[in-house]
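To close the section, here is one more complete example, presented without commentary so you can practise reading it yourself. The ligand is s-citryldethia Coenzyme A.
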Amino acid sequence: MSSSNATITVNDGNNRQVAMPVLPGTIGPSVVDVRKLYNETGLFTYDPGFTSTASCESKITYIDGDQGVLLHRGYPIEQLAEQSTFLEVCYLLMKGELPSKAEFDKFQKDITYHTMLHEQISFFYRGFRRDAHPMAVMVGVVGALSAFYHDSTNIDDPHQRMIASYRLIAKMPTIAAWAYKYSVGQPFIYPQNHLSYAENFLHMMFAVPCEAYKVNPVLARAMDRIFILHADHEQNASTSTVRLAGSSGANPFACIAAGIACLWGPAHGGANEAVLKMLEEIGSVERVPEFIKRAKDKNDTFRLMGFGHRVYKNYDPRAKIMRQSCHEVLDALGVRNEPLLKLAMELERIALEDPYFVEKKLYPNVDFYSGIILRAMGFPTSMFTVLFALARTVGWIAQWNEMIEDPAQKIGRPRQLYTGHDKRDYVPLAKRG
Ligand code: SDX
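Output:
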């Protein structure tokens, strides 16, 4: 039971006071448990955008926005990015502990043997135009998985939830790579069980049936690290979407499709694609001041894409690692003087010296550098958010499972502050002006 509480005094003539428990976390802010507020006062809390609202209890990821800290099950993102692999991070996020060798070997085998898609799904792609945005394809194909794997839609069966979770983690690279292949008119490349998760994805993306394709180990390592950096991030918009969809009992494929749809927005996962378009629009270092000015102009809708974050009021720790990877990948590819990287670094330097960005604590976020690496690796801009969705699937799935197993969770159903018309009577058309 909580040892401290918060009291709300309602000065509306009745001078009611309501004491509500303050619940502490392991680390980070405590919460005021307002669940009884409406029943005791008839008042709702009001928090558009949930800037001060904790929607759930979770043990998966912790972020300290002021310190620029990101922990997955307690492990710092810097250590995971440097020492772990994406598949090991998947195990950690889902099961809560780092695996033993035997546990990891079995997990890796289980995932590997779920990477193929039902052959009928390959025909599903053919319903799209070739120029369909791959995110539209991802939403459609992932949502349709429930039509092919109906057995793992029984969310009350932990074994079926685990199979559905493995299927989603395993099949996302295949679904993503096939979305790309379909857009360029090349044949689908099937998963290869002898390849690692990242190698397999790059092989399905860039191999063609006419010749052998050897994955560049530097790019495979960079791809794996990029997946780690995007794996999970607390209760962000798309994760909250997955949780809300899941709270109704919807099947996991539908919930992940909802998360993909939300991630697509340019304010969220779509920012990596928007950063590249912004850098190409800026074009040269000489034009940076013009765009910085626009970003500060309240009358201009332009925002510096890849900058700012609801939680991080310091450098996004993922952006630091991404920037380091950027240099490594471009060096490995012999494109050290990539103009967009130079432009991005100059844009970052100028922005971080500008009082507007300093006082609003706007720093580069995970999306600022990722697009430059991905473009250098050969991905078209339209695939950037697809890669984000591929990697974030494990975070969505881990949070979805945690929600279903949480006895405190019930269907999410927020209320509102109603400012529309009071009751009024219908006026027949003949009597209207
Ligand atoms: C992701 O939540 C997550 O964890 C998301 C994510 C994850 O891993 O899941 O980290 C991934 O989505 C990263 C964010 C990617 N989006 C972008 O890079 C788009 C550009 N950034 C902004 O749109 C914005 O910073 C948000 C959406 C990221 C955060 O918006 P908030 O928290 O609602 O902040 P805000 O819009 O209220 O901005 C606060 C102030 C405003 O000025 P004032 O009204 O107070 O005068 O800062 C300004 C904003 O105008 N501002 C910017 C800016 N971002 C905020 N001004 C110029 N350029 C920007 N990028």
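Once you have examined the tokens, check your reading against these statements. The mean pLDDT is 95. The radius of gyration is 24 Å.
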